[in-house]
Amino acid sequence: MTKAKSGPKVETSGILEQAQRAAKKGPPPVHLWNPDYCGEMDMRIARDGTWFHEGTPIGRAPLVKLFASILKLEEGRYYLVTPVEKLGIVVEDAPFIAVDFTREGAGEAQRLTFTTNVGDEVTAGPEHPIRVERHGPEGEPAPYVMVRRGLEARIDRKSFYRLVEIGITRPHEGADWFGLMSDGAFFPVIPAAELGS
């Protein structure tokens, strides 16, 4: 979980107005914006993908999508940015959740396209890799897919179970690995020797 820096707490209204203005012209070019750090916003993205402001869940999906569109990762910290403001927020795990996916093709030609809880669609591949971390004493897998500019989505459990059903085993770094193919790339999930153990 990213820790909040100490600093002044900032109101939401100003950044919201600027985000709405930027969104009218298409996807905000967040990667081009480098404003000065302005403090912390009392905003948190929980591990389940719920956005909170001042401890209260943000129930309006369009508002969450707007905030998600101006999210930026810099040196391991998450910020909401506009051309003139950069406000730190807390992200407990990944900022997005991949809630579903579609599969096209098979074998080397297979393409897996994920949909996130904020409406992004991304096809896993060399530019949008899938990675799997192992957590806890049982080594429970935590899968992620890159969405944009360093921002990942954790793949939800139901989608991951479906992915496991279409996984394949192939050589990777000198050993056989069970993993996933998408857009010509192989993404290792678990050493084949550990399957069924």
What does this protein structure show overall?
- The two termini are 30 Å apart.
- The chain has a six-stranded mixed beta sheet. Strands 9-8-7-12-11-10 form a six-stranded mixed beta sheet.
- It has helices at 13-23, 61-69, 157-165; strands at 37-45, 51-53, 56-57, 71-74, 77-81, 86-91, 96-104, 111-116, 121-123, 130-135, 140-148, 151-155, 168-172, 175-182, 185-191.
- It contains three helices and 15 strands.
- With 197 residues, it is mainly beta.
Mean pLDDT: 89
The major beta sheet can be summarized as:
6 strands, mixed
User: What letter string, H or E per element, gives the SSE order?
Assistant: HEEEHEEEEEEEEEHEEE
Instruction: Output the radius of gyration.
Output: 18 Å
Shape: elongated
Draw up the topology in text.
Blueprint: H1 13-23, E1 37-45, E2 51-53, E3 56-57, H2 61-69, E4 71-74, E5 77-81, E6 86-91, E7 96-104, E8 111-116, E9 121-123, E10 130-135, E11 140-148, E12 151-155, H3 157-165, E13 168-172, E14 175-182, E15 185-191
What's this model, at a glance?
This protein has 197 residues and is mainly β.
What key attributes describe this structure?
197 residues, mainly beta, six-stranded mixed beta sheet, 3 helices
